[in-house]
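Lecture 7 notes: from sequence to structure.

We start with a single chain of 240 residues. Read the sequence below before looking at the structure.
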Amino acid sequence: MMPYRLFLPMLVTVLCLASGCVRMPQPQGFPYSNQPKMQAAHHWNVLANDVANRSNNELIRRNYLDSALHVRHNCTKPDGCGPGSASPFDEGFNDLLTTQLVDFGIDTRAAADGASLIVDYKVQVVHHRAVRSQWPQPGVLTALATGVTVLRDAPWELITIASAAAVDTLRATSVLNEHDEVIITTSIMDGDRYLLRTSDIYYINDADSWQYRQPAPAAEIRLTGGHAAPVAAESPAPSL
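Now the structure, written as tokens:
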């Protein structure tokens, strides 16, 4: 048996170490919130409608009712994106936003001129390497546990139905977040002055992230002396 005179110093040492660990700051998550997930072309149209509505309200507020708009492609080329140079989202969102602006009665031009205000949008894909699981919404497990307690003496048919509903509720509120998100920032510029700037953040499916990325330029191969030699492709223009 360990002598008391040795046990006491060891106990004090352990307690000191434990108290030191307790004083270390602990990671704390953000309060529960919602973030939409974009996974259909309809969702692109919902965003286009919201951007057009905010644009219309801001033009009215700033007394720009007589100003025309031109929606510029994300690839930033003045004559439009050539084949294979625009992402699927760029092509789709440009058309959808143009349509929504026209539906709001805003003077919208197919090509930019000196009098047009430019509508730009920037798309940034954010990739997270960590596995980001999320517990069900607060109160769900408590409600399920309460339901099980209340129904313990109910007929088995009712318990079966309630159990199925409980499973559906738990599955609907349990989320395994995927690794990719997208930030879509839309701006209306008058020269170098912002009239409108909005940023929207969405979850996206990992397998769909390619829809939001600019296609890589195709490699050019030049024949020299009967041998094929690769030619470095030009770097794509930076996004605005």
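The longest helix spans residues 41-61. Keep this in mind for problem set 3.
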